[in-house]
Amino acid sequence: MGTDAPMATATEPQILTLAQWLSPAYPVGAFAYAHGLEAAADQGWVTDGASLERWLEDVLNHGAGRSDALLLAAAWRANDPKDLSDIDATARALAASKERLLETTQQGNSFAAVTQVIWGEDLSGLTYPVALGAAAAREGLPLSLTQTMYLQAFVSNLIAAGQRLLPVGQTEGQAILYRLCARLPSIAAETSDGDLTRLSATAFLTDISSMKHETQYARIFRT
Fold first, then answer.
1. 165 to 29, 43, 74: CA distances (angstroms)
2. How far apart are alpha carbons 223 and 210 in whole angstroms?
3. Can you name the CATH fold of 37-213?
4. What is the average pLDDT score of the chain?
């Protein structure tokens, strides 16, 4: 369980640890997952930079962005392995499709494998936000910073996926990321208590697109 206050000021080593964990270079394979965005592009639901930004805004505010931040906070606050196991079971149950479950479990497994070798943390068998929350607590990393950097990495990866699928250039992609990042501290603050009784997801079209992707004929991404 994390012992410092959620809004505690981070030290430089803590910031560097999170930057390493959430860097595209950390081998969790995030680049392979589009979170249903590929099917959304195939269906014509997302067609350009403006619709991509609206889609990702909904994901952050009403879908996996908010729910992952809440699960991460719950894991950071977990009192013992039993609590952590229950939180992880909830994360798995929340996955709306086979591919959504694959996405969170495979990235969690990859994160756990590398982190155990370097930091000695046994996080095996946990979904990605739960594993990250548990690791951050054990390393004494501030909750708020962990949540916001996780969300930034999450949406940044989806923007990169959108740039491969849509006519969205690098400058436009970075402008979208800049605007969406302004919302991340608020999401972190709203979910910092880790109260899973408030867990919900209402970005239904993103769930439907992840289901459609399972049977899509030609695919670039795994989800």
1. 18, 12, 34
2. 6
3. Urease accessory protein UreF (1.10.4190)
4. 95
